Amino acid sequence: MSLQLLFDAMALGGIYAVAALGIALIFGVMRLVNFAHGQFIACAVFALIVPSADALAVMGLGALPAPVLIPLILLIGAGLAVAAEALVFRPMRNASPVALMVSSFALGVALQNLLLVLYGGRPKAVSLWAELGHPVRIAGASVPLLQLIVVAAVVVVLAGLALMLRKTRLGLEMRAAAEDFTMARMLGVRSNRVISAAFALSGGLAAVVALVLVAQTGVADVRMGGQIMLVAFIATVVGGMGSLSGAVAAGLGIGAASALLQAGLPAEARPFRDAFLYGGVILVLLFRPQGLFAPVGAKPRV
Amino acid sequence: MPKLGVYDLAVRYGKLTAISDLSFAVAEGERVFISGPNGAGKSSLLSAIAGAVRAAHGRIEMDGEILSGLGPESIARRGLSMVPEGRRIFSGLTVLENLSVGTGMRNDRSAVAEDLEIAYTAFPILRERAKSPAGNLSGGQQQMLAIARALMTNPKVMLVDEPSLGLAPKVVDEVYDRLCQLQALRALTLVIVEQSSARAARVGGRMLLMRGGRIVADGDAASFAARDLLTEAYFGDAA
Fold it and tell me: Is the pLDDT of residue A214 over 60?
């Protein structure tokens, strides 16, 4: 297997893993499948450019130097998610999981239409960090610098999150709340703090995905969040709803399988790559309907 | 003023009434057992006091301050702690992490360290297993962890729901021994749900007998064993 293919597989899997983690974090603490997550990603993408209906995007925030731009976009993603929680989900705190899920759909549609109004429906060419497209040579293979950076960024994000969950007070409270929310509250854990933190982290992860997607594809499309949301949601189901490590593992697996199938399938079978991929997903779920890493305490709350 | 007061409490799940017109008061430092048949509303009563289920009617007070209507975290922060039915330990967290969840609201670091020492002294197995996942503990050890975890919140009032459930009699003896020691050491007010009135009589304290969501008798636990109030509570007035 070529090194190029290995990095393609790791980069795609890494993006899916980060997106799936954003969904699993929120599901973990409040049993909400947040279908607006894809639109969080799209909003973070469009935050880079100046609102206009032109085909060629004019960079707004995206023109800032990376050390300023990256934290700013992460903050925007986190802020959007926290605001969504406070305005949409908090008033329905005691509603059924199904009602919450439907509202997340509604929120997603509303955000997508807001983007349509501001930016129009045409996909836009966006040039973010174009210089990272240069190939670098490693062990005789040629790999775009961007792929290396994406893989490194994913590793840093995953390690940072794992460290935060293991070593900080907030992380401890989030893990306790994910296992048994009411019990954690009976030990003085503030539900609003934990839920806001989960949304902030999830929004930050959405922003990471947004930056990577734009840098890789050079396109801003109102619909771009929906597609990755679908794969990420499938990854959280395969990984076991509520299991963070399961979401990461399944995201990596699906991304890697997708890249490998793309390269390995005979040319005439390649258009059916997704059929092979999701056929595999169905097989996994047939044998383990609860997902690969079903966590404790993920049973629906009574 | 009682330490804990419950006045005209009603708890409903949809149309099902679990508790109605229930009132009682607990003095500071008292040990009160709540006994009665399955479905009498014992666990619902504790859950309502801890704020885990909302009261449909009535008032719950601690030190004269109204608790009913507050969220469970606010009630915990006022000094009421719960050892719930089924223990509900965080099985994916280590033993020490379980003990630490409830200390987030405390600012007194040295007192937290002292409490940890008290918990470890009362239950040495917890010190031994501090770094291992709580899910690997046996039932009795999990019960001890749940009690220690509640203690770490520095409570004034502790509610304990069926600590003897599913444990061997010898382990139950140990759990009650430690519970009584901790009560004396920390001047706790204890409310314990206990199915076995014989056990309650042996440990000693006051006993409330519940049936059909109400309190049907209130007195010294030791005196209950002798009387046929229990038979009456379990089998009805016709017995």
Answer: yes
Per-residue three-class SS string for B205-236:
CEEEEEECCEEEEEEEHHHHHHCCHHHHHHHC
What's the start-to-end Cα distance of chain A, in Å? Answer: 49
CB-based contact, A173 to chain B, within 8 Å: yes
Residue type, A283: L
| CB-CB under 8 Å, B81 with A175 | no
Could you give the C-alpha distances from B167 to A275, B22, B92, B176, in angstroms and in order?
Answer: 52, 30, 22, 12
Of A8, A29, A25, whose CA–CA distance to A97 is shortest?
A29
Q: What is the ipTM of this complex?
A: 0.92
Cβ of residue B13 closer than 8 Å to a chain A Cβ: no
Residues of B in contact with A169 (CB under 8 A): 104
What separation in angstroms does the CA of A136 have from each of A77, A140, A146, B132, B189? 31, 10, 9, 45, 70
* pTM summary value: 0.88
Q: What domains sit in chain B, N to C, each tagged with a CATH number?
A: 4-235 (3.40.50.300)
Q: Which fold has domain A3-287?
A: ABC transporter involved in vitamin B12 uptake, BtuC (1.10.3470)
